[in-house]
């Protein structure tokens, strides 16, 4: 019993989230002065100043939309209710993931005029194929209503079948976000923030999103996420292999370590150096950002090294102690991110390799 209740609650929650996703996609269709309502006249309502809005009932179902399916008849009943003002809408949309049933007469719906639609509904009612007595009652009651109002409503109904499921809606939203110039690595965070914004617009009195509020939120999120997030390739503390040591033994940065008779640290130094060089040669996402910030960061840490070297000369410090002090201290952060020790040390060895004036030997 508990499992059934839990599964039912999950199904309801997923259906509700699908409805919210439809509402979010519809927000992009708003024009100045428009308003999106959720759970007012139905699932999602686009209200316009000229009464040319759209009311959408969103259904995320895996079965087929047959002639007697509750999704059609219950929706039609709601649109015919006295409290529903269809005059503010030019379209009443049943938006469903379902395909039409193989023998469903409703498959013709969008191509029929109002008179033919009414005739079709009567044919379905009279077919008596429904196994659901409640739906049969709804069919009978609907077609017993005032014909002029019935025609006014069914003339506006559009059936959108085989529509995108939740995952496809997220892909559509991601594409819209990407077109705003948001880097790939930021799209998911942008999307989550936008969905959260829609949920936060709900209150006890109403749940609505105005054109102005939605536009302001898009501007805010675009400003927040338009910059690439600086991320690092993976670095690990590792010693170079014998083959790597042999291959790099004559490099200037290795010679400068040899000059201070500190042979024990050479395998680690070569390992850090090679990791850095490999990372700069990788075709990384946000690659230009990584190279640019790495170059600036190297200038900062070399300036700090030069200050330490001058102090070591004044105090006649041991060269190996200077090496340990520089390579073992915690790295300076980059945009509040603390880089890996091997990344920072690799940059120091790279500078030692290319700048003749840099050295470890205190003299």
Describe the global form: elongated
Radius of gyration: 33 Å
Please state roughly what percent of the residues sit in beta strands, choosing from under 5%, 5-15%, 15-25%, 25-35%, 35-45% or over 45%.
5-15%
Question: Could you name the ranges where pLDDT drops below 50 across 5 or more consecutive residues?
Answer: 1-6
Give the helix level as a range of percent. 40-55%
Overall SS class? alpha/beta
Structure explained in plain terms:
The chain is an alpha/beta fold and about 375 residues long. It folds into 2 domains: about 220 residues, no CATH class; about 110 residues, no CATH class. About 55% of the residues lie in helices and about 10% in strands. The protein has 14 helices and 6 strands. The protein has a 6-stranded mixed beta sheet with strand order 5-4-3-2-1-6, with helices on both faces. A hairpin with a 5-residue loop joins strand 1 and strand 2. Helix 2 runs parallel beside helix 4 and helix 6 crosses helix 7. The longest helix has 28 residues. The protein is elongated, with a radius of gyration of 33 Å. The N terminus is likely disordered.
Key words describing this protein structure:
6 strands, single chain, 14 helices, 2 domains, 363 residues, alpha/beta, elongated
In short:
It is elongated, with a radius of gyration of 33 Å.
